Amino acid sequence: MEHRKDGRRDGVALVMAISAVAILTVVLADMHESTSTAHAIATNERDSLRAEYMAKSGLNLTRLLVAQEPQIRRIVTPMFQLLVGRPPPMLPVWSFANELLAPFCDYKNAKENSAAGGIDWRNAEGLDHAPGTCEVVSFAENSKINVNQPLTLGGDVARRSVAMQLFALTGGYQAQSAYDPLFSKRDADGQFTSRQDVISAFIDWWDQDTQRSVFDPGAGSITQSGGEDNIYQRLDSPYEIKNAPFDSLEEIRLIRGVSDDFWASLVEPEPGNPTSRAVTVYGSGAVNANEAPASVLLARICSFLDGQPLCDDPTEGAKFVQLVSTVRGIIPVPFFSRRADFLNFIEGKGGPRDLYPMLKGFLGEDSGLVFRPVNIPDDQRRDIERSFVTGARILSIHSTGLVGRAEVRIQSVMNFHERWTPPPPNAGRMTGLGIFHHYRVD
Fold first, then answer.
1. Which residue ranges of the chain lie beneath pLDDT 70?
2. 324-342 CB burial, b ≥16 within 10 A, e <16
3. What number of H helices and E strands is found in the chain?
4. How far apart are CA 164 and CA 380, in angstroms?
């Protein structure tokens, strides 16, 4: 009898085969996705680690560059003295770190631009094996207004110094200031905070007593009266006044009256550009006359002097800012070897090779482009002179490593002051590469 094939079995087998293929396809796709994800994560972790070490390389190379500044200064001294008639101040080599370190941080770009730089890097060996690139932004912290407790001042002298600088920085000495709207509306917590309230809040945050600081801009004095502001206790998430110095710039956000508008106007005008900020929490409180933005210099000058056109007349202040900014853009070298040189500049004094007479002769006495000099009273001259410096000892170094799609930034604040000593009971002295005040990896 002829055997007949069962079609139902063939259909079941076909279904089982299709199901098996579908299951295997899903398993294979899942394995592929898992493997691809694991590979991407491993690659990103590898590149992130490489990027961090590229950032560390940029940081350490900048520290080495700053340590070599005295030797670099000795080389340029004869030329500087021939042009200006006096030895140069501390050279801001840190400001040019990204350009000077380009062969080590971005060899490909440095090799392509070697002709413009005057040095041929095409035959250099050992520089083309880096896994990525690094970028460095470095600047002097004393080019900003210090809102923290000054290192060299104490008591009411320290409070008065910070109060006058903050008052000047926020436009308090001007009849109409662009910053007035910051103090005429409610903040995010529904509070009105005047200019004096903000100044008191800054000082009360770091001074160690529990009395409220009251600044009188008319008398230029600061007194202690009553208990410190307890507004922080009425917030949804209450906290205590610190009564100790600021540890980081971000801590300023805790201060009464520091709204987003205040932060964007005075603390960090350009997000991602640390050189744009006007304040610092690091340093002695003296301002670097060679490095500080013109607006910061003007605020520091006017924290001492009032009743003079440079501080009271917005037009004269604008002339000062424009003049200093323009000259620095044309000639990026430090102008002031000594603090007295800066005082001569704002007083309109000096010889033909000093800055103010030179600009006046170049632009013309009646051009209207040069600001009217100030008159420094004899009893204030010493205090004003001590409030400025021409070198830098505390530097911010922001180094960014780039490898593939990974980007790692190291933000550090370095102390290079030769008179630094570790706190007791430790012993030692400042190293050539400086010590860390602040270190953060993003």
1. 1-11, 114-125, 152, 188-189, 219-220, 229
2. beebbeeeeebbbbbbebb
3. 15, 10
4. 14
Residue 233 lies in a domain: yes
Q: What is the C-alpha separation between 62 and 39, in angstroms, rounded?
A: 34
The pTM of the whole model exceeds 0.85: no
Q: Confirm whether 303 is domain-assigned.
A: yes
How many other CB atoms are there within 10 angstroms of residue 439's CB atom? 11
Are the CB atoms for 437 and 395 separated by under 8 Å?
no
Q: Looking at the domain assignment, is residue 381 inside a domain?
A: yes
Q: Quote the pLDDT of residue 277.
A: 86
Domain membership flag for residue 4? no
Spatial CB neighbours of 149, under 8 Å, sequence gap ≥ 6: 158, 162, 206, 207, 245
pLDDT digits (tens, 9 = 90+) for 403-441: 988 999 999 999 888 877 777 777 778 788 888 888 999
| Domain containing residue 322: CATH number | 1.10.40.60
- d(Cα 88, Cα 402) in Å, to the nearest integer? 36
Decide if 147 contacts 207 (C-beta within 8 A): no
Tokens of 178: 């662009």
**Model pLDDT, residue 99:** 87
pLDDT, residue 411, reads 93
Cβ pair 113, 86 in contact under 8 A: no
The rounded distance, in Å, linking the Cα atoms of 316 and 369 is 9
Do the Cβ atoms of 357 and 350 come closer than 8 Å?
yes
Q: What is the pLDDT, as a whole number, of residue 18?
A: 81
CB 256 within 8 A of CB 233: no
Domain count along the chain: 1
State residue 1's pLDDT score. 47
Give the chain's length.
442
Cα–Cα distances in angstroms (integers) from residue 340 to residues 80, 289, 376, in the given order: 18, 10, 12
Structural domain of residue 197, as residue ranges? Answer: 142-389
H helices of 68-194, in order, are: 69-84, 97-100, 102-105, 107-112, 114-117, 155-169
The CB-side HSE value for 174 (13 A sphere, CA atoms) comes to: 19
Helical axes 355-363 vs 314-330, angle rounded to 10°? 100
pLDDT tens profile 232-274: 888 888 888 888 889 888 899 988 888 888 888 888 888 888 8
Q: Phi then psi for 387, rounded to 5 degrees?
A: -85, -5
